[in-house]
Specification:
seven-stranded mixed beta sheet, 7 strands, binds S-adenosyl-L-homocysteine, methyltransferase
Length: 223
């Protein structure tokens, strides 16, 4: 895990934007609090990013969402809210404890019926999803070593037009400093290079600052 080093001004501005523009609901806040109380890491997306995910799900007209990395269900909650009532999100989580906390949060938010949590290593779960209807939207946010593997699975389980969002692609700038983080940064770099080179993908990447430090996300579209 990387330490979030956030300038006070970034956090103040994020709080302002969250209050004035984003308007998270009590269920979102409760999901964050529940994770802290359960001793889970505070590595969910920021509220403005969660709402971006919800809006991208809505704007893309997605009905089937795949998430890799559930934690307490904060990002799952935002995305599930962007789905129609018959829409579904499959979210992959390695730790049973995280999946249990997420289940309670998603049920309490009234979106539990849209969410299928699969416990286990995502590289074991993803092959079991082949042969189902294609996913329209994929959010990759788990162990960064496997980002390129997850990107490949997203393409295979998607269709032309599927939108893929990958979190944490800047990692406090460590992507440009080989050796500073020998597991996460090389995995992220491999995925970014794949986004730029794989003929199946068209992509961009955006840097962000805020409560989660200096980081960013990439968005790809399956050709
Ligand atoms: N998307 C969440 C945050 C996810 S944090 C949000 O924004 O609210 C990353 C999560 O990925 C953690 O819960 C961690 O347990 C899980 N994870 C790590 N390695 C994994 C793996 N190999 N397969 C599935 N989940 C994994
Ligand atoms: C970490 C993981 C994340 O998905 C994130 O958004 C921030 C940090 C981590 O493992 O440190
Ligand atoms: Mg993340």
């Amino acid at each position: 895990m990387i330490e979030h080093v956030a300038e006070p001004g970034w956090v103040d501005v994020e709080r302002y934007l969250t209050d004035v523009v984003v308007h998270p609901e009590p269920a979102h806040q409760r999901a964050v609090t529940s994770a802290l109380e359960a001793g889970m890491p505070a590595i969910e997306v920021a509220p403005n990013a969660g709402k971006l995910l919800r809006m991208l799900v809505q704007m893309s007209g997605a009905r089937r969402v795949l998430e890799i990395g559930t934690l307490a269900g904060f990002s799952s909650m935002w995305m599930a809210q962007g789905l129609p009532d018959d829409g579904r999100i499959v979210t992959c989580e390695y730790l049973r404890k995280h999946a249990d906390v997420a289940r309670a949060n998603l049920d309490a938010a009234g979106v539990g019926h849209k969410v299928d949590i699969r416990v286990g290593a995502a590289l074991d779960t993803l092959p079991t999803l082949a042969g189902q209807e294609a996913f329209d939207f994929v959010f990759i946010d788990a162990d960064k070593e496997n980002d390129a593997n997850y990107l490949d699975w997203a393409v295979r389980l998607g269709r032309p037009g599927t939108v893929i969002v990958m979190d944490n692609v800047i990692w406090d700038g460590a992507i440009l400093e080989p050796g500073r983080d020998e597991t996460n940064a090389p995995g992220i770099v491999k995925a970014l290079e794949m986004m730029g080179q794989d003929p199946r993908l068209d992509a961009t990447a955006i840097q962000t600052v805020g409560s989660k430090g200096w980081d960013g996300f990439a968005i790809a579209r399956v050709r």
